Amino acid sequence: MSRYTRTVTIGLLSAAWFLSPAISTANEAAGHGSGHEHGPHIVEIFLGATSADHHGTREQAGSLGASYRYAFNHTVSAGVLAEYTGGALDHWVLGVPFVFNLGQGGWQGTLMPGVELTSSHEEALFRVGLGYEFEFDGYALKPELNVDFVNGETVYVLGVSLGFRF
Question: Which fold has domain 3-165?
Answer without folding.
Answer: Porin (2.40.160)
